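Structural prep section.
Before we set up the soaks we want a predicted structure of the protein with NAP in place, mainly to decide which crystallisation condition to try first. Input record follows.
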Amino acid sequence: MQRRILGRTGLRVSPVGLGGYPFGGINRAAGWDPFTPEGRQTAIATIHRAIERGINYVDTAASYGDGNSESIYGEALAQDGRRQRVILATKCRWNGAGDDVIRSVERSLERLRTDVIDVIQFHGGMFTEENVRHILEAGPLEAFWTLRQQGKVRFLGFTCEEPWTARPLIATGQFDVVQLRYNIIYQGAALHALNEARDQRMGVAVMRPMTSGILQRTLRFLKPEWPEAEIYELALEYALADSRVHVANVGMRWPHEVDTNVTLASRFQPPEGFDVADLPRMTAGIYRADDEDAGISERSDR
Ligand SMILES: NC(=O)c1ccc[n+]([C@@H]2O[C@H](COP(=O)([O-])OP(=O)(O)OC[C@H]3O[C@@H](n4cnc5c(N)ncnc54)[C@H](OP(=O)(O)O)[C@@H]3O)[C@@H](O)[C@H]2O)c1
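Run finished without errors. Recording the tokens verbatim:
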């Protein structure tokens, strides 16, 4: 798989990353339980397959299954030097004191069986002004600086579901990486955060690139004749076709899902001259773009 540069970190990342949520969550309908020995072995096989197939960015969190996802990654990466082959990103809570951040990251290091986390992220949903002040002024950010100085983390980041609320943290210039909710149905980040992140030369990861199955579930009812595999393909292509995105963290449980997504990503080439980043998104811009596409340079009603 090709590589993209993760903003100012300079790290070369695969455009598809391995999301770690499934290794911390049980899904009985899918017969998935990463807390059983068999489930754990399958998750490890998935991580190994991802590395074999060229995925080099893996994302997890202290809270996924209360450490279960990190512990699975720890076991999988300890085998045959695989830790050296990946960029390891994890997350911690931001709403406690600085000491809580430090303790959380130290526990993550133990579970991940490593001396250093490549990208540490404050695990966010949405950030109010008060939350931002807390992070910047009440200890959490300072704790990140301490951890970086101690060599326990390399790059600093945060994750955010609601892109508008990511802007104040992006604007601080303190973070090297941001992970945003961004996909073909949640396009808010396209207008409200991705340009700002690019201007700061931040690395950009996206969460939920496959819409966490929401689009597929909707279309299963509204357009049952549409092949579901193609909807997943479309969702992945949307994320890959935005030049502001460096890595799309896809949740994958089974090795065969890794194979499918690596194949899709490897063969996808955005059409010549097309970049989702350039799509007009406001009505006046859309009208102008329609005129340009039709080869009309002057408005006829003037
Ligand atoms: N606040 C935060 O920081 C935050 C929040 C959410 C997510 N994340 C990160 O983003 C990652 C991805 O999010 P997500 O897992 O919610 O959503 P996602 O990647 O949008 O969707 C994952 C689901 O899509 C299915 N899938 C993936 N590829 C497929 C394919 N080619 N064909 C058919 N089905 C496919 C899988 O379902 P099946 O396994 O059932 O087939 C998988 O569980 C997480 O794992 C996590 O690392 C971060």
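Observations: The radius of gyration is 20 Å.
Flagged for discussion at group meeting.
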